[in-house]
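Suppose a colleague, Dr. K., hands you the sequence of a protein chain of 326 amino acids and asks what its three-dimensional shape might be. Before reaching for any lab equipment, you can write down a predicted structure in C-alpha cell form. Begin with the sequence itself:
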Amino acid sequence: MGAARPSLVGYAWLSIGAAVAAIALKTGAYWLTDSVGLLSDALESLVNLVAAAVALVALTVAARPADEDHSFGHDKAEYFSSGLEGGLILLAAFAIAVTALDRLLHPRPLVHVGLGLAVSLVASLINLGTALVLLSAGRRHHSITLEADAHHLMTDVWTSAGVLVGVGAVRLTGLGWLDPVVAFAVAGNIVRMGVRLVRRSMRGLMDAALPGDEQGVIREVLDGFRGEGVDYHALRTRRAAARRFVSVHILVPGAWTVQRGHDLLERVEAAICARLPNLTIFTHLEPLEDPVAWGDEGLDRPENAAGDTGREARAAGEAAAGGGAS
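The predicted structure, expressed as C-alpha cells, is then:
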C-alpha cells in the first residue's frame, strides 16, 4: 500500500482562514467604492470559503483507513470536494453576471477608488500566498482537493488583478461601463475553471486510467523482467485521488515452483512501487504455456493487445520452460 500520507486538514484550515480574511477585506473594498467589479471579487471569495469548508470535510474523510465497508479506502471523497467546488464556482459566475448586467443597465459612479483598490490588493496578496502553499502541498502529497483549492485561489488572484485594472481604468478614464464589463470577464474566467474542476472530478469518479506517462513507467518496469523468461498482460490502472491502483497478470514458465513465482511477484510489485508513490498493486500469476492464460489478453486496451506479440512470447515461454525443466 505504501506509506500513508500525513494529515492535510491543516492546509484546509489555512484556506478557510485566508477566505475569511479575503471576504472581509473585499467586502470592505466594495462598500468603500460601490464597484460591482469588487463585489464580484468578494462573491468569489465567499465561494472560496464554502469550498475550503468542503475540502476540510473531504480531507478528513479521505484520511480514514480502509475498513469493512470501504476496502479500498476513502480517497475518492476528494473528488466530491473538487466536483462541488466546481459547481459552486459556476454558481458564483452566474451571480456575478447577473449583478454586472444590472450595473451595466443602471450605472452608478464609483467612490473612494484608491482606498478600495488598496484594501482589495491586500486580500489578493493573502490569496496568492495561500494558493502557492496549497499548490505545493497538493503536488507533494498528490491531493486533488488541495490542488483544486489552490487553482481556485489562483483564479481569484487573476480575477482580482482584472478587477483592479478595470476599476483603476474607470477612475482614469471616467468610463463607468468598464466596471461591469470587467465583471463579465471575471464571470467568464470563473466558468472556465469551474468546468475544468467538474470534468476532472467526473474522470476520477469514473475510474479513468492513469496518465500515459505513468502507464509508461509501469510498462518500462514490467518489460525489464522479460529477460527472465516471463511476460505480462491485462494491465489495468485507475486512480482514486492520491491513491493509484494497478492490476496486471504475470506469466511465468509452468515448471516454476509456487515459491519462485511468488518471489518474482514480490520483486515486480516492489519495483513498480519504487517508481510510483501511493500505489496499490494487484498481481495475478499464470503459466506461460497454458492457452487459457492467454485467453484474457482482451483485458488489455485495444492499442496494447498482444496479438502476434503474445504468441511470440508464449513460444519463448515454452522454450524457457523446456530449458528450466532440463
